[in-house]
Amino acid sequence: MFDFMNMMSKVKEAQAKIKEAQSKLVHLTAEGESGAGLVKVTVNGERKVLTIDLDESLLTPQDKEMLSDLIVAATNIAMEAIDVKIKEAMKSATEGMLPNIPGMDLGSMFG
C-alpha cells in the first residue's frame, strides 16, 4: 500500500536538500572561451557573469564588432557549461530522495 505520509516526509526532505544545494550554486563557476582563447568569460551558478578577460590584441576600434561577437559567444558557452554543472549539482543533491517517477526529473527543474 502507498504510504502517503512517508512520501510527504521524503518530499520535505528533498525540498530542504534542494534549497541547500541552491544556496551553494554561487560557488560553482564555468568558463567559456571564443576566438581561440582571445576572449574568456566566467559565470557562476546563479548565471551571473563574474569576469570577462580580453586579449589586448582585440582592443582596437576596427575589431569592435568582432570583439562583441566573441564576448557573446564566450558568454553563451559559459552559460551552457554552468547549466550542466547546476543540473549535476541538483541531481546529486536529490539522488535517492524520491522514487523514480517516470517523467519527473527534478534536475531539469533547475536548467
UniProtKB/TrEMBL annotation:
Matches recorded under InterPro entries: YbaB-like_sf, YbaB/EbfC
GO cellular component: bacterial nucleoid; cytosol
Major place of residence: cytoplasm
Subcellular location, record wording: Cytoplasm, Nucleoid
Single Gene Ontology MF annotation: DNA binding
Annotated coiled-coil segments of the chain: 4-31
Keyword tags: Coiled coil, Cytoplasm, DNA-binding
Family note: Belongs to the YbaB/EbfC family.
Family matches, as HAMAP family: DNA_YbaB_EbfC (MF_00274)
Summary of the function given for this chain in its UniProt record: Binds to DNA and alters its conformation. May be involved in regulation of gene expression, nucleoid organization and DNA protection.
Subunit structure and binding partners: Homodimer.
Name of the featured protein: Nucleoid-associated protein SAMN04488108_3830
Organism: Algoriphagus zhangzhouensis
